[in-house]
């Protein structure tokens, strides 16, 4: 095992110390948060953590669904869980929906594990175009307790490598909630720029999202 290296089976391996920080994520179905992302500080003992990245398997479906629901609620239900939010989360984040993604030939789903536990995941959708960019990062979710460990950066970098291998083009695009300033800053720090506005409707209300692109 080499910190920050690649193993022979293609997994990324990195070592970090878990610490409280921001939760970074994006999804094509992000509503606008009623308030800024939750920023309460969680007291934790720092632990040395090694994480790895690999393609998701069917037996990961339940864990991915739970983590997705956790991250979504943590960020977007800071004012409490409404009936609309409850219905959306329980319908969207199910093992069945995750299995459908895994069975879709246009989707690549990568997971990041820390000590054999799921810490984050990324969903890539090929053939989903924005202008000249053919690959969408549909979802990037990191459990808040692993924020700041470099897992989000590692997943994004790994995904762009997959895009290059599959399409000959490492450019990607995504949408991120316009009020999620921490996530926006995360993407900007990794070379992504705004390239439009998109909207998501939830409960009859349209929520603004920024379209961000990395072409380099």
Automatic annotation (TrEMBL):
Transmembrane segments: none annotated. Residues 51-216 form the N-acetyltransferase domain. InterPro entries: Acyl_CoA_acyltransferase, Bact_Acetyltransf, GNAT_dom. The keyword Nucleus does not apply. It holds the Pfam family Acetyltransf_1. The keyword Acyltransferase applies. Keywords: Acyltransferase, Transferase. This is GNAT family N-acetyltransferase. It comes from Paraburkholderia solitsugae.
């Amino acid at each position: 095992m080499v910190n920050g290296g690649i193993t022979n089976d293609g997994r990324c391996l990195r070592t970090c110390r878990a610490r409280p920080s921001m939760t970074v994520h994006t999804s094509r179905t992000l509503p606008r948060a009623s308030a800024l992302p939750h920023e309460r500080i969680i007291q934790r003992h720092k632990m040395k953590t090694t994480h790895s990245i690999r393609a998701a398997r069917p037996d990961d479906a339940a864990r991915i669904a739970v983590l997705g629901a956790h991250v979504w609620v943590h960020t977007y239900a800071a004012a409490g869980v409404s009936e609309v939010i409850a219905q959306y989360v329980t319908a969207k984040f199910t093992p069945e929906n995750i299995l459908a993604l895994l069975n879709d030939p246009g989707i690549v789903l990568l997971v990041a594990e820390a000590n054999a536990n799921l810490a984050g995941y990324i969903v890539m959708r090929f053939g989903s175009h924005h202008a000249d960019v053919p690959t969408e990062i549909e979802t990037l979710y990191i459990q808040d307790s692993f924020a700041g460990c470099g897992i989000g950066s590692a997943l994004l970098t790994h995904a762009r490598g997959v895009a290059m291998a599959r399409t000959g083009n490492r450019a990607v695009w995504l949408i991120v909630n316009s009020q999620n300033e921490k996530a926006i800053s995360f993407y900007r720090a990794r070379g992504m720029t705004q390239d439009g506005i998109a909207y998501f409707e939830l409960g009859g209300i349209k929520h603004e999202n920024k379209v961000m692109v990395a072409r380099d």
